[in-house]
TrEMBL record:
It is found in: Membrane. One of its GO terms (cellular component) is membrane. Belongs to the EamA transporter family. This is EamA domain-containing protein. It comes from Iodidimonas gelatinilytica. The chain crosses the membrane at residues 32-51, 63-85, 91-112, 119-136, 148-169. Keywords: Membrane, Transmembrane, Transmembrane helix. It is a multi-pass membrane protein. Residues 4-135 form the EamA domain.
Amino acid sequence: MLNAVLFIICVLIWGSTWYAIKFQFGIVPIEWSVAYRFFLAAILLLGWCIISRRRLRFSWSDHAVFAGLGALLFCLNYVLLYWGTSYLTSGLVAVIFSMMSLANQVNGALLLRIRIEPKVLVGALCGLSGLGLIFAPEFSKISGNDGLVTGIVLCLLGTLSASFGNTLAATERGKNFPLFAFNGYAMLYGSA
């Protein structure tokens, strides 16, 4: 039961962010939109760390890891996906981004020596196929789209950036950082 509730919460939060992205277009440049979003989130997370007296002092080398995560996960990933979204329908962007489950497995195997679980690979492929079927009607709208290749390449690069960020966070060092401080500093560096 708890797994189902956690899954539903994840789907509602993650799913709503794709909808929120649409509201960020056109008001300010994409890069500023990403910077504002993560600067505000960083202030909230780091503020929570101060209020709850969580550890905020780290070495310079720790901050280098935070900056790496920020660049990959909270800057490049979003900027590239937002740029790609300006060329493609949101359904196609979601399908491309869902390829991250496969990229995470490959990066984990290559960079962290984590064995690829066949059932996880099958699950990722089934999920990707399901998303493809759900958004199949949107794919028909992309014929004649001059920016199609550009949008796909931007979204694939954004997805790879996110996967490399996830891989960095999954290292032994990354797993040992306090979660709120790690993400707060990473968002702060990513917004910069």
